[in-house]
Write a structure and sequence with these properties.
The protein is α/β, with parallel strands linked by helices. It is 27% helix and 27% strand. The radius of gyration is 17 Å and the shape is globular.
């Protein structure tokens, strides 16, 4: 069972619309204009479809793939114009019809996927040469502050890679997270033929009296 299935209703209520979400706004900035001509876009690990709907509303044809049938039920219950949803393992391309995509987006998803190389390989396989891949993740270097945990396992260090779960009642306490070093992400992308074009680290603050911190990492890559 997909980790998100048990929490799909909670997640759908909790997650903000892209227009109200700091990291989603950064992702769309980094993604660049996708409205001049209709593009065929893959929403990799699309969840309940919030990014897919925003892309489709801008005139793009979107395919959203996700392992969680419960999250996809919420996606399909919303506006599905210009969107096709497929329940599948994003680390496989068995679902793909062979028609290349112009772009791939993965919104706050790669740290939810155990097989990072498999997910990146999927993006590289389905993209046309010169296509783009934009993704956002929890910043691997986020050190934590107050009750907000660091990106790496509690009691460990930045170099302790692997899946872990907080003891809190937030998202990472429910579904966990796969921590990887920044170099792991960069090297996997390069190994699969991607070239970095742009990056953002949108400032996040726990409170106005706390310093801004790098909680998210957002990047855009180009397939050679």
């Amino acid at each position: 069972m997909a980790r998100y299935d048990e929490y799909a209703g909670w997640y759908d209520d909790w997650i903000a619309a892209p227009a109200d979400d700091l990291v989603a706004l950064s992702l769309f900035r980094v993604m660049g204009p996708v409205t001049s001509t209709a593009q065929r876009v893959l929403d990799l690990a699309c969840g309940q479809g919030r990014v897919a709907r925003a892309l489709a509303a801008d005139g793009n044809d979107v395919v959203g793939v996700d392992l969680s049938g419960e999250l996809l039920a919420f996606a399909r219950a919303a506006d599905c114009r210009r969107i096709t949803y497929i329940q599948t393992d994003v680390c496989s391309t068995d679902w793909w019809d062979g028609v290349p995509f112009d772009g791939v987006v993965a919104s706050m998803a790669l740290m939810d996927i155990d097989d990072l190389e498999g997910a990146v390989r999927t993006a590289a396989t389905v993209l046309r040469p010169g296509g783009w891949f934009a993704w956002s993740i929890i910043h691997p270097l986020f050190p934590g502050i107050a009750q907000v945990r660091a990106s790496w396992p509690t009691g460990g260090s930045y170099f302790d890679k692997g899946w872990w779960q907080t003891d809190g009642d937030g998202l990472r306490g429910r579904v966990g997270s796969s921590h990887r070093t920044l170099s792991t992400y960069l090297n996997v992308m390069v190994e699969h033929g991607f070239v970095l074009e742009a990056a953002e680290e949108p400032p996040w603050q726990l409170s106005p009296s706390d310093p801004p911190m790098p909680f998210f990492l957002v990047t855009r890559w180009r397939r050679r």
